[in-house]
Amino acid sequence: MSTEQIHEIGRRRAWVIWLVALAVYVLAVFHRSSLGVAGIIAADRFGINATSLATFTVLQLVVYAGMQVPVGVLLDRFGSRVMLVGGLALMTVGQLAFALAESFPAAVVARALVGAGDAMIFVSVIRLVTVWFLVRQAPMVTQLTGLTGQLGAIVAAGPLAFLLHHLGWTRAFAFTSSVGVVLLVAVLLLVKDSPYRRDEVVAVKLRALAESVRTVWGNPGTRLGMWSHFTSQFGATVFTLLWGYPFLVQGLGWSAGHASTLLMAMTAWAVVSGLVLARLVARLPYYRSFIVIGVVLAMVVPWTAVLLWPGAAPAWLVVVMAFTTASGGPASMVAFDLARSFTPAHAIGRANGLVNVGGFTASLLTMALIGVVLDLVQPGGMDAYDLHDFKLALSVQYLFWAFGIWQILRYRRRGLAHLDRVHPGSIEQMRAGQPFVHPGIGTEGV
């Protein structure tokens, strides 16, 4: 496959393409988070209880995580532009169907479509960052991608609530779905897959799919990225999407307003910590996995203090715990920067898909296990849970943190040995503070 560069890398065209793709990602996060503010209305509209309402969130995450590997394969085959268009189409149809749905089964199908479209967006944007930006730019742009995308959650918390109040369910969700049509046109007009002209694309036939994914998975760098994502991301996801609000209000006795303010402040803190992490990763490429472990340990310490505190922990300690937990989001972005060092460009979609499975799998398992523990210690339901119940249930996070850190250390050692064997000089280059990006030779699988 021959390549010829026809556009400059890291210049104005790259930023325009990134901004359009980033807008799509913000919309995806908005759609993903939109049910949070509409939960009470949804329960009334569909006549469902809290367990059925939680099905929406869990289903979206299951669809999202389950589609990451096939999406990665399709991304390597068709490129980011096609995948962004496909994801936008699915999200737009799903959100419109959700606006019109009047029964619980129809609403579930609609949210599954939203989850399927959402699954195509983030890895497509990260692939654009990989090919359109210089090595020294990529860590910062990757962090900005993850952090700016969270604006979608803030928009879902504020403006969507306003629209629901003034327009009602159907018109509010129909209006938000129309944004996808505008962005669809922008993607078609402005986004290009690569600054290079390629004579052929990466064709992965169905019969070779399993072998293709097995090869990428066999690379210890892919597993290092996946376990880094697994260990750092789930804490913030579990806290902000499901269990944080009940823990703050029902467990610690905070007011609803204070709890909502803290959840929004976590997003702002994630932006600040993400910028710091991006600089660290760019300056210290050899220590990227240690940086991830450091962030995780910074979460564990205040969590331990909050859970062991006699009675309700003081507000300042809870804020420290929440902010360090929020730092896990930016830390999980480091996993995709790790994949750049171990994976040739033609396989980066599959690698990023596998990496992205990590955090969402951990989030689903943690959410479910916390619920199981709560039901075991207090069968009376949500209204009966007290602070002791929450503390006991939230302690399950330590299982995932400990297992994840062990796996990171395990695959860091294997990954460095792999790079040293296959790309002599790469380790010394990273030790010297110079980032190493895979030169694109070979498949790198085991």
UniProtKB/TrEMBL annotation:
Pfam families: MFS_1. The chain crosses the membrane at residues 15-41, 53-75, 82-101, 113-135, 147-166, 172-191, 224-245, 257-278, 290-309, 315-339, 351-372, 392-409. Keywords: Membrane, Transmembrane, Transmembrane helix. PROSITE patterns: MFS (PS50850). Gene3D superfamilies: MFS general substrate transporter like domains. InterPro entries: MFS, MFS_dom, MFS_trans_sf. It is found in: Cell membrane. It is a multi-pass membrane protein. Residues 17-412 form the Major facilitator superfamily (MFS) profile domain. Its main location: membrane. SUPFAM superfamilies: MFS general substrate transporter. This is MFS transporter. It comes from Nocardioides zeicaulis. The lineage of its organism: Bacteria, Bacillati, Actinomycetota, Actinomycetes, Propionibacteriales.
